[in-house]
Amino acid sequence: xxxxxxxxxxxxxxxxxxxxxxxxxxxxxxxxxxxxxxxxxxxxxxxxxxxxxxxxxxxxxxxxxxxxxxxxxxxxxxxxxxxxxxxxxxxxxxxxxxxxxxxxxxxxxxxxxxxxxxxxxxxxxxxxxxxxxxxxxxxxxxxxxxxxxxxxxxxxxxxxxxxxxxxxxxxxxxxxxxxxxxxxxxxx
Length: 188
What we know:
The chain is α/β, with parallel strands linked by helices. It has helices spanning 15-19, 31-39, 56-64, 88-94, 96-104, 116-130, 143-154; strands spanning 4-10, 21-22, 50-52, 70-71, 86-87, 136-141, 171-176, 180-186.
């Protein structure tokens, strides 16, 4: 049986990730994010099979590193519902009770958004399909899908994955040989 290696690379910094908020689906990297992504060197073994979220921030991260990704809908960021594109301060002012509920249980997702469980189902199906590849794969995505992938791969409680910090440009490496294993978590 061949080993599948998966490098989950978090998309580079955007305005929302620097200011604290829920990114809009069409949010691009900020200037610093482009610079930081361009400085990142993708290991050679992962350069030949690069998949990404269809969002601009993930695609721009790959392009800044000199690779062309294959967009995969399963890798898209979690849908933040009506909070997408808004910062925490605005939401705290306009919807303090809803924000307090989300802070108490972020796995439920933002109002009219996607739950972390729904995100895990789509990421889990994508992850399960990779087990037969026996090849190195790089996937550029976002913090919540990476948390959901880790929870799925390690059969850990989904809620526990919220305790894992996933920073922009951080790297999570998983391998599959009969079962998934976490090889490393590296900061961005």
